[in-house]
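User: Last request for today: this protein with aspartic acid, please.
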Amino acid sequence: MWGIIATWRMALDGIEGAAKQLEEGGRADDAVEAAIREVEDFPYFKSVGYGGLPNEQMVVELDAAFMDGNTLSFGAVGALHDFANPVSVARALAADDANNLLVGEGADLFAERAGFERKAMLTDRAKVFYRKRLAEDEKRRQEGAALELGEPEAEQEAARGAGIASAPRGHDTVGAVCLDEQGLMTCATSTSGLFMKRPGRVGDSPIPGAGFYVDSEAGGAASTGLGEDVMKGCLAYEIVRLMGEGLHPQAACEQVVSAFSDKLTRRRGKAGDISFVAMDRAGRWGAASNLEGFSFVVQTQGSEPQVYLAHPQADGSCAHELASQEWQDAYMAARLAPVSE
Ligand code: ASP
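Assistant: Here's the final one, the structure of the complex with aspartic acid:
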């Protein structure tokens, strides 16, 4: 059995490519890296890789991770600058016994020395979003309104366009969990993090146990959402632990996401967006979110790639609906729409 699951509709092309590799007997480490690279390379996804939105100083800082579920080796980068494929840098860091998580200048230096492709990751399109956001923030400041982190994502604009009620704000990580026919499980993440974040801010995506975790004897999980809240619960590890105890990935995701979201609301008065995808060693999969309309993509042996939308329910469960063609068209149209100042 092989399979791969990833956060957000933006992973679709990457998943299809990875699935072909897996079908031909390819390895889960190569397949998951290829899936994430595809998303990193696409300039219109504004929360991952090339085209990702910058921090408050208009600098793109990228977080990414890779983990091998057989050896439990992981590699991760935080606040990496101007390298085309952060996930590949993360994977290279997983080869050593130490220095597995590097940030900022140290991560840049490693990537440079290892010969990774340099690329100016700030696009003209991202600069337009940045300048628009500065102008909006200034207007809000003048009106005395509180400023919020992140920005409404095209994901949600698309959901609205298709008449689906949608939640407030997005910042979107691509995170994937993969299983190959040999039973190797891997996971990987990549993101530009929160739009307008402080320089040096690192989210959950490169933090093992928080934004990602995989153990080939149990399963893997990867997140997207407000990193600061995901890190409060070490949620990826928790989901994998529950799968190791025999829980179905869907039950594990639902239990962890809804219980932790409720806990944050109880203790702090609010919970940020928290969404997870997971797969177990048998190729069974699950996804849960506290965000209405969270999309994810999954393909397993013998089936076509599917895009789903998650609908959290009052009892803590999370229903899945196949995304309609109309929704998918609206999604891509929102991503590709021209932007002007
Ligand atoms: N989790 C990411 C971060 O906090 C962003 C996201 O997935 O939306 O950096």
